[in-house]
Amino acid sequence: MEVFNSFSLKEVITSFMVLFAVIDIIGSVPIVVSLQQKFGQIEAGRASITAGIIMIVFLFVGNKILKFIGVDVNSFAIAGAFVIFIIALEMILGIEINKTTEAKSASIVPIAFPLVAGAGTLTTTLSLRAEFHDINIICGIILNTIFVYLVLKSAKWIEKKMGEASLAILQKVFGIILLAISIKLFTANFAQLVQNYINF
């Protein structure tokens, strides 16, 4: 009952909006379509449920896991920045860095992680926990998981509606945006990492 007493629609909506902005599944549509063309069928349910589970689990044990393996949040975010950087390079330059050929591999990696439940999303869940009650953050995660599922499920329809030329342009545009995000994520966390070591 205590859990339900902590329920707040305002906190749920705020958590949803914050995570929605960080996940940016709409902006990731060109990546999803590109991965579908590259790997084949994407298991929308498997990918979205896995991403949701990762986010909820990380909400409760994220800090403990990172501390246990001796990794701080900033280092974790920098690692995520490198992954996003590589995906962006593939989109912009049209090169293939990920050589995986197994079709089902695209459902979990890189869609569930790190595209949906990436370093930015996971660190955001930890930040939200400092301000909101757990039940409201979980509701926000579930709502985002449902939305991600709907977008992934309609990837074929989106692919049919998009021409090859417009898809190529969108991929390069969003590739540049992803590149900028990865650089921002890297510089912000690297600066914080350096500051922590200097203070130490």
TrEMBL record:
Main location: membrane
InterPro entries: Multi_antbiot-R_MarC
Locations listed in the record: Cell membrane
Topology of the protein relative to the lipid bilayer: Multi-pass membrane protein
Coiled coil: none
UniProt entry keywords in alphabetical sequence: Cell membrane, Membrane, Transmembrane, Transmembrane helix
Record field: transmembrane: 12-35, 47-69, 75-95, 107-129, 135-152, 173-194
UniProt keyword annotation of Transmembrane present: yes
Top-level lineage group: Bacteria
PANTHER family: UPF0056 MEMBRANE PROTEIN YHCE
Family (UniProt): Belongs to the UPF0056 (MarC) family.
NCBIfam families listed in its UniProt record: NAAT family transporter
Designated name of the protein: UPF0056 membrane protein
Organism whose genome encodes this protein: Chryseobacterium formosus
